[in-house]
């Protein structure tokens, strides 16, 4: 069944993921879906203010629509970075209020900010004042013992009054102590009902749900209750999952590319990037799951893994690996 969702804001996105959603993975995703909203990895305000901005922020225009996710808790620094993002050409700036890692907590940002909704509101207001692009927030349903629905609703109410209209809600709470970031993605139970209730009580806000969603059938089901769906690890583990979304979610009259066609469209990009002195592995590691679950996937992965580290490895490695996979894969 094909359902068309005509919404002002994007109904499907790929979650920001550290060491996953870099520019090379995003370029791969653009060969599969043109419309899905993509996010950068989280980048701290300190890194942008003091670091190599071209290395951190550069992207290909083909990657748009594209959002920059920021980590920080200082309104002035966040406003500056939002302004830089807008000038750089990003379509959205997103504030991370969901990451539970110790490093993030030590910087007083990420999930621990859920206990400080007024601070988040000040940050959002400062960013909103600095830019004309959307400022959004990604967060959890709660943290530690502060996980009642009332706490979640209070957080969203306060932050929305500062001007945020789009909330991407990971439907698990986070334990700030005792669980690793990986465990925090799986151990706390999913509470989709809290997110549905949030949409019911804040109908004027765009509420996006995240967590445990791995199929397009589940996406369609979720869109009956909320405005948008964000997919995380499933997008990385099986990027071809998105092959039909431009047609089935966005209503475009388009023929989904085959996996072979996706790989072939990556070849000129690989040649260009490798010619700049970047190692093939930086790109090829994102391609390993392209044939996930298909005949030939083991041979595909093995050939790339065995040949990617050769001194002059380039697009020819991917071409040769592709020859290992049946054309119907």
Automatic annotation (TrEMBL):
Keywords: Flavoprotein, FMN, NADP, Nucleotide-binding, Oxidoreductase, RNA-binding, tRNA processing, tRNA-binding. FMN binds at residues 16-18, 69, 138, 170, 210-212, 232-233. The record marks 96, 182, 185 as: Interacts with tRNA. It is an enzyme of class 1 (oxidoreductase). Residues 14-322 form the DUS-like FMN-binding domain. InterPro entries: Aldolase_TIM (IPR013785), DUS-like_FMN-bd (IPR035587), DUS_fam (IPR001269), DusA (IPR004653), tRNA_hU_synthase_CS (IPR018517). It catalyses: 5,6-dihydrouridine(20a) in tRNA + NAD(+) = uridine(20a) in tRNA + NADH + H(+); 5,6-dihydrouridine(20a) in tRNA + NADP(+) = uridine(20a) in tRNA + NADPH + H(+); 5,6-dihydrouridine(20) in tRNA + NAD(+) = uridine(20) in tRNA + NADH + H(+); 5,6-dihydrouridine(20) in tRNA + NADP(+) = uridine(20) in tRNA + NADPH + H(+). Its cofactor is FMN. Its EC number is 1.3.1.91. CDD domains: DUS_like_FMN (cd02801). The active site is at 99 (proton donor). Pfam families: Dus. One of its GO terms (molecular function) is tRNA binding. It comes from the Bacteria. Belongs to the dus family. Catalyzes the synthesis of 5,6-dihydrouridine (D), a modified base found in the D-loop of most tRNAs, via the reduction of the C5-C6 double bond in target uridines. Specifically modifies U20 and U20a in tRNAs. This is tRNA-dihydrouridine(20/20a) synthase.
